[in-house]
Amino acid sequence: MNLMTLIPFTEHWATIYKPMQHDRKSNKRFYCVESIANIANLSKELPRIHSPFVCIETNIGGDIGNKFLEPEYNVYFFVQAGQKVQDNDIADSSAKDEAMRHAIAYLNYIRHEKDIHEDDRESQLLGIDTDQVHFETFGPILNRWFCVGIALSDLSKYSHCMSKDDYIEEGTWKKE
Questions:
Q1: For 71-119, how does the pLDDT look when each residue is reduced to its tens digit (9 = 90+)?
Q2: What is the DSSP-derived secondary structure letter of residue 89?
Q3: H/E stretch holding 102
Q4: N or C terminus of the chain: which is more exposed, having fewer CB within 10 Å?
Q5: Cβ count within 10 A of residue 145
Q6: pTM of the entire structure?
Q7: Cβ partners under 8 Å of residue 88, min gap 6
Q8: For residue 172, what pLDDT is reported?
């Protein structure tokens, strides 16, 4: 799995998922942001965005082991808790619960797609760990929006071995 696969996969999911029904022109409900810290960049659009929507973070984290790179991708599910500015614990909790339901629906769709393509060893989805997914809630953000973020771990091991072809051999540098 990589972002070049995850972004169109998630946008497609948002298009066919009935609570969102993403459409780039009239009902945009899929976004990419550099990081969750940059969500304020969407603030100009938030008054026009309908709840719920999904957002992918294009910055990547993960682990680098001795021989392998294990990336992690973050996907966020946003729900607005109403238009009122004051705190409302029940509406806030309800928005977080709804965002969690969308996150679970997304994970179930990934599982479904993995099952369909289990014989296809080239399928990019097979590397995603859907058995153990870390999640976190955020909010309120910008006018009563709440979200659940999930971290998708890529179990595909990417080798990052050093190659001698990447380096100039010592003693071969030319002095100018």
A1: 899 999 999 997 666 667 888 889 999 999 999 999 999 999 888 877 7
A2: H
A3: helix 89-116
A4: C
A5: 23
A6: 0.84
A7: 81, 82
A8: 60
- Once rounded to an integer, what is the mean pLDDT over residues 4-8? 89
H or E element: which one contains 10? helix 3-16
Rounded Cα distance between 58 and 150, Å, is 14
**In angstroms, rounded to a whole number, what is the distance separating the alpha carbons of residues 19 and 51?**
9
- CA gap 132, 15 in Å, rounded: 26
| Tokens of residue 40, six digits | 């304020």
Cα separation, 52 vs 136, in Å, equals 17
> Which position has the token pair 């709840």?
51
* pLDDT for the residue numbered 50: 87
* Percent of the chain's residues with pLDDT above 70: 83
DSSP secondary structure code for residue 65 in this structure: -
CA distance to 42, 97, 105, 122, per residue, from 12 (Å): 21, 23, 14, 19
Longest pairwise C-alpha distance within the chain: 72
Beta bridge partners of 76: 55, 149
